[in-house]
Design brief:
The protein is an alpha/beta fold. 38% of the residues lie in helices and 16% in strands. It has 2 domains: 200 residues, Rossmann fold, CATH 3.40.50.720; 96 residues, Alpha-Beta Complex (UDP-galactose 4-epimerase, domain 1), CATH 3.90.25. Strand 1, helix 1 and strand 2 form a beta-alpha-beta unit.
Length: 330
């Protein structure tokens, strides 16, 4: 990826998008266009030195305007959130297909050189994720297709669109399947947050209030792997620069249960809480882990940030947001 030429970050007002823009600036990219549908005041990070545009990329006219005179595209734009959101907003999640298809069309029309699409581990067949002691998911496990309803189907369809635009039109497309990305400058409440941020928020709230309790969705034995945002951005850039046109897993391969996740956050917060399990709450698949063999072999990438280190950074940031930066003795 050369420094010359304009870079479009679609969905750049979001969590991962904001970190990507910061990384692009740090590595010397001066021409960056950032587009997001949220009002500027709701963007997670704002960089005044780039071109910031509020536009709805579900509209083809907005996609064409965004892709005009652009050399590289990173498409991170989607209506999504944690399990509490995607299980109750399936139609809204599916509508993100308008962004992926129309932005691909606009990129092709504008002769964009390379197009990155952020997919998700939600594309994997549900029958392979029924046990907490899950076998790590390989890229081939997405087929025969039976992804997570709504959000997962949209992601899988958009992956295929990238493949066919590459085959039919020569557009260089790259796809990463993100596995549970977390870190500072992300959502931590309102149902769109992922498990690490939600657990951090709940532990902090219990500590500040002195309630001594934490509510956990499900029985706490469901398992996941979690990737820190810094590793995500590094992997995204490596995949973008590579010759690998097929979708690649981008995640941690360290499997832990939600109960173990709570253990770590309790240690960071210096508290021990009574656990109240909500068995009726959304909880997603029973187990999900990333098989990183393919990306390690072909691109030499592996996550570097231990979960304990990333969670501590995330916890400190959320604590500051919840207390207004005021340190308390609680």
């Amino acid at each position: 990826m050369e420094k010359a030429g304009k870079v479009l970050v679609a969905g750049g007002g979001g969590f991962i998008g904001g970190h990507l823009v910061a990384d692009l600036l740090q590595t010397g990219h001066a021409e960056i266009r950032v587009v997001d549908c949220k009002p500027l005041s709701q963007w997670y990070q704002i960089f005044p030195q780039v071109e910031n545009i509020c536009a709805d990329l579900r509209q083809v006219s907005a996609c064409r305007a965004a892709a005009h005179d652009v050399r590289y595209v990173f498409n991170l734009a989607a209506d999504m959130g944690g399990i509490g959101f995607i299980e109750t907003h399936k139609a809204e999640c599916m509508l993100s297909v308008l962004i992926s298809t129309q932005l691909l069309m606009a990129a092709h029309e504008a002769s964009v050189e390379r197009f990155f699409y952020s997919s998700s581990a939600c594309v994997y067949a549900a029958e392979k994720q029924t046990s907490a002691d899950v076998v790590p998911l390989r890229e081939s496990d997405a087929y025969p297709a039976m992804p997570e309803d709504g959000y997962g189907w949209e992601k899988l369809f958009s992956e295929r669109m990238c493949r066919h635009f590459h085959e039919d039109y020569g557009l260089q497309t790259r796809v990463a399947r993100y596995h549970n990305v977390y870190g500072p400058y992300g959502t931590f409440d309102g149902q769109r947050e992922k498990a690490p941020a939600a657990i951090c928020r709940k532990v902090i709230a219990a500590k500040l209030s002195g309630s001594g309790e934490i509510e956990i969705w499900g029985d706490g034995n469901q398992s996941r792997s979690f990737m820190y945002i810094e590793d995500c951005i590094t992997g995204t850039r490596i995949i973008f620069d590579s010759d690998e046109a097929q979708p690649l897993n981008l995640g941690s391969d360290r499997l832990i249960t939600i109960n173990q996740l709570v253990d770590i956050v309790e240690t960071i917060g210096g508290v021990k809480l009574k656990r109240v399990y909500d068995l009726a709450a959304p909880k997603g698949v029973r187990g999900r882990n990333s098989d990183n063999m393919l990306i390690a072999e072909r691109l030499g990438w592996a996550p570097r940030i231990p979960l304990e280190v990333g969670l501590e950074q995330t916890y400190r940031w959320i604590y500051d947001q919840m207390t207004g930066g005021v340190k308390t003795a609680a």
